[in-house]
Design brief:
Blueprint lengths: L1 E4 L4 H11 L4 E4 L15 H16 L3 E10 L20 H15 L5 E11 L8 E11 L15 E3 L4 E2 L5 H7 L1 H16 L1
Parallel strand pairs: 1-2, 1-3
Antiparallel strand pairs: 3-4, 4-5, 5-6, 6-7
Helix pairs in contact: 1-4
Amino acid sequence: MKLVLASSNPGKLREIGALLAPFAAVVSQEELGVADAEEPHATFLENALAKARHASRAAGLPALADDSGLCVEALGGEPGVHSAYYAGREGSREERDARNNNRILSNLNENRKAYYCCVLVLVRHPDDPRPLVAEGLWRGEIARASRGHNGFGYDPLFFIPSLQKTAAEPAPEHKNRIRHRGIALQKVLGLLNDQA
């Protein structure tokens, strides 16, 4: 199967591309000249569905889209769907990531519980009436300082108690199987197998 990945985020492209390699030929929307879709919705599901339909329509291929983010208990679930731009839209991705992490740290109290949420949507065509939908959650807490270089976004702050590491410390091949996106992707692959 060949499909378009509805993302221009290089971290997501590496992660999803590596996990899907045995099952599908993945091409990024950027390679096909497809612009990012708008993400005006209040839920991960609505944003992922909008991105998948947009990429499928523009590329003429099945499309896989994810919407994901960090949800912090003490912040009422923020940054949630606004994770990428929690501290503003200015600057490079690395500059935004640094500002986002600083904002999280400055807004937290003693309750540091958090989870990553990923909703993946696969559409076979733009008007697919039965998109495949899967959710993955990865629970942890916010560290007191950034650690590690094997991640992006909030990974250097997202501490996994069972590993005693942040999400930016383990090797990518190990982390990608246990994180929210990997969990959701395994569910999507299961749904595809059920329909085969």
